[in-house]
Amino acid sequence: MKKNLTSQDIALLAGVSQSTVSRVIRNHPSIKSETRKHVLQVIQEHGYTPNAAARQMKTNRSGAIAVVLANLTNPLYPCLLHLLVNQLASHGLKTTIWETSTELDDATASAIAESDVDGVIFATAVASSRRQHQMIARRKPVVFLNRKLSGQSYDAVISDNYKGGQVVAEYFVKGRRRHIGLLTGFSEASTILDREKGFMEKLKNATRPIKLIHPPSQFTVFTYENGYQAMQSLLRLAPDVDAVFCTNDIIAIGALDGARACGKRVPEDLWVMGYDDIPMAGWEAIGLTTIRQPLASMAALVVDRLLLRIENPELKPETVRLPNKLVIRETTSKIDP
């Protein structure tokens, strides 16, 4: 019977230490590229397969990270997930995925806390789930991506949603919009709340008279269908509205079609603007003006921060806030300088 090789056997064959073999397998950055290439060649030639269970017992690490997110029907989250999986893989780490409802329930929180993952990235978080987040954080290193919880001491990597909302308001004012609508859903998410706040506060302080039409939130799920219906309701309430800010792209795309179904020409009669810059926002058939979040940078930074947190559990938590960018497309008109 052929003997199963161990990492010590590979070390002898490669002429390196066993710890070097271990670091190569874990894709540790301290290993020189020549050494890494040589050890990987020996591993390939001899068909060596690391024993994951033995490695976990020795290092107390599984090499897996949990990513918790909600509403995968929103194209933003598959984009984030793709970026995170690639970032984690570049560090030799596996990804386990947990999709939750808006709120994190006790059963899911307990399962994550008791799993063998080395850390947790939350791409969704609401204030009503504070206790569940704390339950997990007592057992695992955690970081938050795209969301934050006010008053809580967690690492977070977010974009500046408050400033992004202000940028939308400034753009509308500069474009001489006078009857401005806000379409948003009922949400506890910091992203949505900050966008709304920045937008409304900037319009309130505008130097020229502006009417803000902000109908009560009629939905809790941000979908194309809800955006479509919300725009039609808004136009019945305020037919003279000349610009609408939607607090994410998916409802903006629905709102765009809802406006056209009511006979509105976009952008001649009505400007429509979203937020996030999901891939379909840039499709020629849509051409949505929006605010772009730096998702790739956010994903890279959140993975780096989690790995640092895993190695140094006593680090003081910090929030990294990145700037966003206005992307002007066909659903708004050009503004004269």
TrEMBL record:
InterPro entries: HTH_LacI, LacI/GalR-like_sensor, Lambda_DNA-bd_dom_sf, Peripla_BP_I. Residues 5-59 form the HTH lacI-type domain. Keywords: DNA-binding, Transcription, Transcription regulation. Gene3D superfamilies: 3.40.50.2300, lambda repressor-like DNA-binding domains (1.10.260.40). PROSITE patterns: HTH_LACI_2. One of its GO terms (molecular function) is DNA-binding transcription factor activity. The keyword DNA-binding applies. The keyword Transferase does not apply. Pfam families: LacI, Peripla_BP_3. It comes from the Bacteria. CDD domains: HTH_LacI, PBP1_LacI-like. PANTHER family: ALANINE RACEMASE, LACI-RELATED TRANSCRIPTIONAL REPRESSOR. This is LacI family transcriptional regulator. It comes from Advenella kashmirensis (strain DSM 17095 / LMG 22695 / WT001).
